[in-house]
Write a sequence for this structure.
Protein backbone atom coordinates (compact mmCIF):
# COMPACT_ATOMS: atom_id res chain seq x y z
CA UNK A 1 0.00 0.00 0.00
CA UNK A 2 1.36 3.42 -1.01
CA UNK A 3 0.67 6.53 1.04
CA UNK A 4 1.16 9.90 -0.66
CA UNK A 5 2.14 12.51 1.93
CA UNK A 6 2.48 15.39 -0.53
CA UNK A 7 0.09 18.33 -0.25
CA UNK A 8 -2.99 17.53 -2.39
CA UNK A 9 -2.90 19.57 -5.60
CA UNK A 10 -6.23 21.26 -4.89
CA UNK A 11 -4.80 22.65 -1.64
CA UNK A 12 -1.44 23.82 -3.00
CA UNK A 13 -2.61 27.37 -3.67
CA UNK A 14 -4.09 27.74 -0.18
CA UNK A 15 -0.91 26.44 1.46
CA UNK A 16 1.23 28.78 -0.64
CA UNK A 17 -0.96 31.77 0.27
CA UNK A 18 -0.94 30.84 3.95
CA UNK A 19 2.85 30.55 3.90
CA UNK A 20 3.16 33.90 2.11
CA UNK A 21 0.99 35.59 4.74
CA UNK A 22 3.05 33.97 7.49
CA UNK A 23 6.34 35.04 5.91
CA UNK A 24 5.37 38.56 4.85
CA UNK A 25 3.24 39.67 7.80
CA UNK A 26 3.16 37.26 10.72
CA UNK A 27 6.88 36.64 11.03
CA UNK A 28 8.01 40.30 10.59
CA UNK A 29 5.43 41.53 13.13
CA UNK A 30 5.80 38.66 15.57
CA UNK A 31 8.04 40.47 18.05
CA UNK A 32 6.10 43.74 17.76
CA UNK A 33 2.79 42.32 18.93
CA UNK A 34 4.41 40.04 21.47
CA UNK A 35 5.75 43.14 23.20
CA UNK A 36 2.54 45.15 22.69
CA UNK A 37 0.33 42.69 24.57
CA UNK A 38 -3.45 43.21 24.22
CA UNK A 39 -2.95 45.50 21.20
CA UNK A 40 -5.12 44.35 18.32
CA UNK A 41 -3.12 43.93 15.09
CA UNK A 42 -5.34 45.91 12.72
CA UNK A 43 -3.38 44.61 9.75
CA UNK A 44 -5.13 41.29 10.36
CA UNK A 45 -8.39 42.72 9.02
CA UNK A 46 -6.98 42.62 5.51
CA UNK A 47 -5.84 39.01 5.89
CA UNK A 48 -9.21 38.04 7.36
CA UNK A 49 -10.95 39.57 4.35
CA UNK A 50 -8.70 37.48 2.10
CA UNK A 51 -9.63 34.29 3.96
CA UNK A 52 -13.32 35.19 3.75
CA UNK A 53 -12.91 35.62 0.01
CA UNK A 54 -11.25 32.25 -0.31
CA UNK A 55 -14.08 30.63 1.64
CA UNK A 56 -16.73 32.28 -0.49
CA UNK A 57 -15.06 31.11 -3.69
CA UNK A 58 -14.61 27.58 -2.41
CA UNK A 59 -10.84 27.94 -2.44
CA UNK A 60 -10.39 27.91 1.30
CA UNK A 61 -12.01 27.91 4.69
CA UNK A 62 -11.49 29.33 8.13
CA UNK A 63 -12.22 27.65 11.41
CA UNK A 64 -15.83 28.59 10.93
CA UNK A 65 -16.00 26.44 7.83
CA UNK A 66 -15.07 23.09 9.32
CA UNK A 67 -17.80 20.48 9.03
CA UNK A 68 -17.50 16.74 9.47
CA UNK A 69 -17.00 14.89 6.22
CA UNK A 70 -18.51 15.59 2.84
CA UNK A 71 -22.10 15.22 1.70
CA UNK A 72 -23.51 11.75 2.17
CA UNK A 73 -24.49 11.49 -1.48
CA UNK A 74 -20.89 11.94 -2.65
CA UNK A 75 -19.20 9.02 -4.36
CA UNK A 76 -17.40 6.60 -2.05
CA UNK A 77 -13.62 6.76 -1.79
CA UNK A 78 -10.92 8.78 -0.11
CA UNK A 79 -11.54 12.49 0.36
CA UNK A 80 -9.24 15.34 1.18
CA UNK A 81 -11.64 17.95 2.48
CA UNK A 82 -11.99 21.03 4.65
CA UNK A 83 -10.45 19.51 7.79
CA UNK A 84 -7.19 18.57 6.07
CA UNK A 85 -7.20 21.85 4.19
CA UNK A 86 -7.54 23.89 7.37
CA UNK A 87 -4.95 21.75 9.13
CA UNK A 88 -2.35 22.42 6.44
CA UNK A 89 -3.15 26.14 6.36
CA UNK A 90 -2.91 26.36 10.15
CA UNK A 91 0.53 24.75 10.13
CA UNK A 92 1.79 27.34 7.66
CA UNK A 93 0.30 30.32 9.50
CA UNK A 94 1.73 29.16 12.83
CA UNK A 95 5.11 28.76 11.20
CA UNK A 96 4.77 32.55 11.12
CA UNK A 97 3.16 33.27 14.49
CA UNK A 98 0.59 31.31 16.50
CA UNK A 99 -0.52 34.32 18.57
CA UNK A 100 -1.37 36.29 15.44
CA UNK A 101 -3.27 33.35 13.98
CA UNK A 102 -5.35 33.14 17.17
CA UNK A 103 -6.07 36.86 16.72
CA UNK A 104 -7.51 36.43 13.23
CA UNK A 105 -11.12 37.70 13.03
CA UNK A 106 -13.79 35.04 12.50
CA UNK A 107 -11.33 32.17 12.87
CA UNK A 108 -12.00 31.46 16.55
CA UNK A 109 -12.56 28.13 18.26
CA UNK A 110 -16.13 29.23 18.87
CA UNK A 111 -16.57 29.33 15.10
CA UNK A 112 -15.47 25.70 14.95
CA UNK A 113 -18.01 24.85 17.68
CA UNK A 114 -20.81 26.53 15.75
CA UNK A 115 -19.77 24.79 12.52
CA UNK A 116 -19.65 21.41 14.26
CA UNK A 117 -23.11 21.29 15.82
CA UNK A 118 -25.21 24.28 14.70
CA UNK A 119 -28.35 23.84 12.61
CA UNK A 120 -28.75 25.55 9.23
CA UNK A 121 -30.55 28.57 10.67
CA UNK A 122 -27.82 29.13 13.27
CA UNK A 123 -25.11 28.73 10.67
CA UNK A 124 -26.71 31.43 8.55
CA UNK A 125 -27.35 33.72 11.53
CA UNK A 126 -23.76 33.60 12.73
CA UNK A 127 -22.16 33.62 9.31
CA UNK A 128 -19.42 36.26 9.30
CA UNK A 129 -19.42 36.56 13.11
CA UNK A 130 -16.30 36.13 15.24
CA UNK A 131 -17.00 33.53 17.94
CA UNK A 132 -14.86 32.77 20.99
CA UNK A 133 -15.35 29.70 23.18
CA UNK A 134 -15.78 29.72 26.98
CA UNK A 135 -15.36 26.38 28.75
CA UNK A 136 -12.83 26.69 31.59
CA UNK A 137 -13.95 27.90 35.02
CA UNK A 138 -12.03 28.89 38.15
CA UNK A 139 -13.05 25.71 40.00
CA UNK A 140 -13.11 23.12 37.21
CA UNK A 141 -9.66 23.19 35.63
CA UNK A 142 -9.30 20.46 33.02
CA UNK A 143 -12.49 18.63 33.99
CA UNK A 144 -14.99 20.03 31.51
CA UNK A 145 -17.62 17.71 32.91
CA UNK A 146 -17.54 19.53 36.25
CA UNK A 147 -18.82 22.81 34.82
CA UNK A 148 -20.76 24.88 37.33
CA UNK A 149 -22.15 27.61 35.09
CA UNK A 150 -25.90 27.00 35.02
CA UNK A 151 -28.57 27.48 32.37
CA UNK A 152 -32.14 27.57 33.72
CA UNK A 153 -35.09 27.49 31.30
CA UNK A 154 -37.43 30.48 31.58
CA UNK A 155 -40.05 30.47 28.84
CA UNK A 156 -38.32 31.01 25.49
CA UNK A 157 -35.04 31.89 27.22
CA UNK A 158 -32.29 30.31 29.27
CA UNK A 159 -30.85 32.27 32.20
CA UNK A 160 -27.08 31.75 32.55
CA UNK A 161 -25.09 32.30 35.73
CA UNK A 162 -21.41 31.53 36.31
CA UNK A 163 -17.83 32.51 35.58
CA UNK A 164 -15.51 31.72 32.65
CA UNK A 165 -11.75 32.17 32.44
CA UNK A 166 -9.08 31.88 29.72
CA UNK A 167 -11.44 32.75 26.87
CA UNK A 168 -9.29 33.19 23.77
CA UNK A 169 -10.27 36.32 21.77
CA UNK A 170 -12.99 36.97 24.34
CA UNK A 171 -12.71 40.76 24.23
CA UNK A 172 -12.54 41.01 20.44
CA UNK A 173 -15.15 38.43 19.45
CA UNK A 174 -18.71 39.27 18.41
CA UNK A 175 -20.12 36.37 20.43
CA UNK A 176 -18.97 33.64 22.81
CA UNK A 177 -19.96 29.96 22.86
CA UNK A 178 -20.56 29.30 26.56
CA UNK A 179 -20.74 25.81 28.05
CA UNK A 180 -23.31 25.51 30.85
CA UNK A 181 -25.24 22.76 32.60
CA UNK A 182 -29.00 22.38 32.56
CA UNK A 183 -28.93 20.17 35.67
CA UNK A 184 -25.84 19.59 37.81
CA UNK A 185 -27.28 16.39 39.25
CA UNK A 186 -27.26 14.73 35.81
CA UNK A 187 -23.53 15.23 35.24
CA UNK A 188 -21.96 15.61 31.82
CA UNK A 189 -25.09 14.71 29.87
CA UNK A 190 -26.72 17.98 30.95
CA UNK A 191 -23.94 20.21 29.60
CA UNK A 192 -24.94 22.28 26.57
CA UNK A 193 -23.35 25.08 24.58
CA UNK A 194 -25.01 28.48 24.10
CA UNK A 195 -24.07 31.32 21.79
CA UNK A 196 -24.01 34.53 23.86
CA UNK A 197 -23.72 37.79 21.93
CA UNK A 198 -21.32 40.36 23.33
CA UNK A 199 -23.24 43.23 24.84
CA UNK A 200 -25.92 40.95 26.29
CA UNK A 201 -26.93 42.38 29.69
CA UNK A 202 -25.16 40.62 32.57
CA UNK A 203 -22.31 39.33 30.38
CA UNK A 204 -19.39 41.19 31.96
CA UNK A 205 -15.71 41.26 30.96
CA UNK A 206 -13.73 41.17 34.22
CA UNK A 207 -10.16 41.41 32.92
CA UNK A 208 -7.63 40.38 30.29
CA UNK A 209 -4.87 37.98 31.32
CA UNK A 210 -1.14 38.68 31.07
CA UNK A 211 0.48 35.54 29.67
CA UNK A 212 3.73 33.67 29.09
CA UNK A 213 3.14 33.38 25.35
CA UNK A 214 0.68 34.05 22.50
CA UNK A 215 0.56 37.63 23.76
CA UNK A 216 -0.87 38.97 20.51
CA UNK A 217 -4.04 37.06 21.36
CA UNK A 218 -6.33 38.44 24.07
CA UNK A 219 -7.43 36.04 26.81
CA UNK A 220 -10.51 37.12 28.76
CA UNK A 221 -12.21 36.44 32.10
CA UNK A 222 -16.03 36.75 32.08
CA UNK A 223 -18.78 36.78 34.67
CA UNK A 224 -22.35 35.82 33.68
CA UNK A 225 -25.04 37.21 35.98
CA UNK A 226 -28.62 36.43 34.97
CA UNK A 227 -27.69 36.48 31.29
CA UNK A 228 -30.82 35.80 29.21
CA UNK A 229 -30.16 33.79 26.05
CA UNK A 230 -32.91 32.84 23.62
CA UNK A 231 -33.56 29.13 23.21
CA UNK A 232 -32.60 29.41 19.53
CA UNK A 233 -29.04 30.13 20.66
CA UNK A 234 -28.61 26.66 22.14
CA UNK A 235 -26.38 24.59 19.86
CA UNK A 236 -27.57 21.04 19.25
CA UNK A 237 -30.46 19.33 20.98
CA UNK A 238 -31.98 20.84 24.15
CA UNK A 239 -32.84 17.36 25.39
CA UNK A 240 -30.72 15.69 28.06
CA UNK A 241 -29.68 12.25 26.83
CA UNK A 242 -27.98 10.36 29.64
CA UNK A 243 -27.12 7.52 27.26
CA UNK A 244 -25.29 9.81 24.87
CA UNK A 245 -23.67 11.59 27.79
CA UNK A 246 -21.10 14.23 26.92
CA UNK A 247 -20.80 13.23 23.26
CA UNK A 248 -22.78 16.13 21.81
CA UNK A 249 -20.68 19.05 22.97
CA UNK A 250 -17.46 17.01 22.90
CA UNK A 251 -17.79 16.55 19.14
CA UNK A 252 -16.39 20.05 18.83
CA UNK A 253 -13.05 18.84 20.20
CA UNK A 254 -12.77 16.13 17.56
CA UNK A 255 -12.44 18.96 15.02
CA UNK A 256 -10.47 21.49 17.04
CA UNK A 257 -7.86 19.26 18.72
CA UNK A 258 -6.16 18.41 15.42
CA UNK A 259 -6.04 22.16 14.73
CA UNK A 260 -4.23 22.79 18.01
CA UNK A 261 -1.86 19.97 17.04
CA UNK A 262 -1.29 21.79 13.74
CA UNK A 263 -0.44 24.97 15.62
CA UNK A 264 2.21 23.15 17.65
CA UNK A 265 3.57 21.48 14.51
CA UNK A 266 3.89 24.84 12.75
CA UNK A 267 5.74 26.49 15.65
CA UNK A 268 8.03 23.47 16.06
CA UNK A 269 8.88 23.48 12.35
CA UNK A 270 9.83 27.15 12.54
CA UNK A 271 12.14 26.41 15.47
CA UNK A 272 13.76 23.46 13.70
CA UNK A 273 14.42 25.47 10.55
CA UNK A 274 15.98 28.36 12.47
CA UNK A 275 18.04 25.98 14.59
CA UNK A 276 19.32 24.17 11.52
CA UNK A 277 20.41 27.50 10.04
CA UNK A 278 22.27 28.51 13.21
CA UNK A 279 23.93 25.10 13.57
CA UNK A 280 25.07 25.07 9.95
CA UNK A 281 26.52 28.57 10.31
CA UNK A 282 28.45 27.26 13.31
CA UNK A 283 29.86 24.43 11.21
CA UNK A 284 27.67 21.61 12.56
CA UNK A 285 27.01 19.06 9.81
CA UNK A 286 23.70 17.17 9.89
CA UNK A 287 24.12 14.05 7.77
CA UNK A 288 21.02 11.95 6.99
CA UNK A 289 23.16 9.17 5.49
CA UNK A 290 24.95 8.38 8.74
CA UNK A 291 23.62 6.95 12.04
CA UNK A 292 22.91 9.66 14.58
CA UNK A 293 25.28 8.13 17.14
CA UNK A 294 28.23 8.62 14.78
CA UNK A 295 27.62 12.37 14.50
CA UNK A 296 28.14 15.28 16.85
CA UNK A 297 25.86 15.58 19.89
CA UNK A 298 24.17 18.64 18.39
CA UNK A 299 23.48 16.89 15.08
CA UNK A 300 22.22 13.74 16.82
CA UNK A 301 19.87 15.79 18.98
CA UNK A 302 18.57 17.68 15.96
CA UNK A 303 17.82 14.42 14.12
CA UNK A 304 15.93 13.14 17.16
CA UNK A 305 13.84 16.33 17.30
CA UNK A 306 13.03 16.09 13.60
CA UNK A 307 11.85 12.50 14.01
CA UNK A 308 9.64 13.57 16.93
CA UNK A 309 8.18 16.33 14.77
CA UNK A 310 7.47 13.91 11.92
CA UNK A 311 5.49 11.61 14.22
CA UNK A 312 3.31 14.49 15.40
CA UNK A 313 2.78 15.66 11.82
CA UNK A 314 1.60 12.23 10.64
CA UNK A 315 -0.81 11.82 13.57
CA UNK A 316 -2.38 15.21 12.83
CA UNK A 317 -2.82 14.35 9.15
CA UNK A 318 -4.54 11.11 10.12
CA UNK A 319 -7.00 12.82 12.47
CA UNK A 320 -8.00 15.42 9.88
CA UNK A 321 -8.27 12.85 7.08
CA UNK A 322 -10.58 10.69 9.19
CA UNK A 323 -12.89 13.64 9.84
CA UNK A 324 -13.02 14.40 6.12
CA UNK A 325 -13.93 10.77 5.42
CA UNK A 326 -16.71 10.61 8.01
CA UNK A 327 -14.82 8.27 10.29
CA UNK A 328 -14.97 8.62 14.11
CA UNK A 329 -11.70 10.30 15.05
CA UNK A 330 -11.97 11.04 18.76
CA UNK A 331 -9.07 8.69 19.56
CA UNK A 332 -6.90 10.03 16.74
CA UNK A 333 -7.72 13.66 17.57
CA UNK A 334 -6.57 13.17 21.16
CA UNK A 335 -3.47 11.22 20.09
CA UNK A 336 -2.51 13.98 17.66
CA UNK A 337 -3.10 16.72 20.21
CA UNK A 338 -1.21 14.87 22.96
CA UNK A 339 1.77 14.08 20.74
CA UNK A 340 2.02 17.47 19.02
CA UNK A 341 1.44 19.46 22.20
CA UNK A 342 4.18 17.68 24.10
CA UNK A 343 6.56 17.47 21.13
CA UNK A 344 6.07 21.12 20.22
CA UNK A 345 7.00 22.26 23.71
CA UNK A 346 9.95 19.86 23.93
CA UNK A 347 11.28 20.73 20.47
CA UNK A 348 11.15 24.50 20.91
CA UNK A 349 12.86 24.32 24.31
CA UNK A 350 15.57 21.99 23.01
CA UNK A 351 16.15 24.34 20.08
CA UNK A 352 16.79 27.17 22.55
CA UNK A 353 19.22 24.86 24.34
CA UNK A 354 21.01 23.84 21.14
CA UNK A 355 21.54 27.42 20.00
CA UNK A 356 22.72 28.73 23.38
CA UNK A 357 22.79 32.50 23.80
CA UNK A 358 21.44 33.04 20.27
CA UNK A 359 18.31 31.12 21.14
CA UNK A 360 17.83 32.68 24.56
CA UNK A 361 18.06 36.31 23.50
CA UNK A 362 15.48 38.42 21.68
CA UNK A 363 17.76 38.64 18.65
CA UNK A 364 15.95 35.59 17.25
CA UNK A 365 12.41 34.31 17.67
CA UNK A 366 13.46 30.99 19.21
CA UNK A 367 12.80 32.08 22.79
CA UNK A 368 9.39 33.44 21.77
CA UNK A 369 8.44 30.20 20.03
CA UNK A 370 9.39 28.30 23.18
CA UNK A 371 7.03 30.52 25.19
CA UNK A 372 4.24 30.34 22.63
CA UNK A 373 4.32 26.57 22.32
CA UNK A 374 3.61 25.81 25.98
CA UNK A 375 -0.05 26.77 25.81
CA UNK A 376 -0.54 24.35 22.90
CA UNK A 377 0.14 21.48 25.31
CA UNK A 378 -2.49 22.86 27.69
CA UNK A 379 -5.58 24.34 26.06
CA UNK A 380 -8.24 22.25 24.29
CA UNK A 381 -7.47 19.57 26.91
CA UNK A 382 -4.19 19.19 28.75
CA UNK A 383 -1.57 16.53 28.02
CA UNK A 384 -2.85 14.45 30.94
CA UNK A 385 -6.48 14.71 29.79
CA UNK A 386 -5.53 13.57 26.28
CA UNK A 387 -3.66 10.56 27.64
CA UNK A 388 -6.69 9.69 29.76
CA UNK A 389 -8.99 9.89 26.73
CA UNK A 390 -6.63 7.73 24.67
CA UNK A 391 -6.48 5.13 27.46
CA UNK A 392 -10.28 5.02 27.73
CA UNK A 393 -10.66 4.54 23.98
CA UNK A 394 -8.03 1.82 23.75
CA UNK A 395 -9.26 -0.07 26.82
CA UNK A 396 -12.96 0.41 26.13
CA UNK A 397 -13.54 2.12 29.48
CA UNK A 398 -16.02 4.86 30.32
CA UNK A 399 -15.08 8.07 32.14
CA UNK A 400 -16.59 6.67 35.34
CA UNK A 401 -14.56 3.44 35.00
CA UNK A 402 -11.23 5.12 34.30
CA UNK A 403 -10.59 8.45 35.99
Amino acid sequence: MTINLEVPKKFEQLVEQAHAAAAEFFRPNSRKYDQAEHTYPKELDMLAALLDGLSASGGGTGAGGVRRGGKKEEKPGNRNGSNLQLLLGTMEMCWGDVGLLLSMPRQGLGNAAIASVANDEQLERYKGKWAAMAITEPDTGSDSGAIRTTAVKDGDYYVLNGEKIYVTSGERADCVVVWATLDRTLGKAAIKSFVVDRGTPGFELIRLEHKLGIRASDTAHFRLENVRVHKDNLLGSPDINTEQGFAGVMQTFDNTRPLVAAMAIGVARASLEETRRILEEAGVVIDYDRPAQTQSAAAATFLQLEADWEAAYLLALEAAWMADNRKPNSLQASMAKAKAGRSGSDITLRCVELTGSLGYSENSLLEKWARDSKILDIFEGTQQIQQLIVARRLLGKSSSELK
Q: What stands out?
A: Confidence is low (pLDDT under 50) at residues 56-73. The first strand starts at residue 131 and ends at 134. Strands lie at 131-134, 150-154, 157-168, 175-181, 191-197, 203-208, 219-230, 234-235.
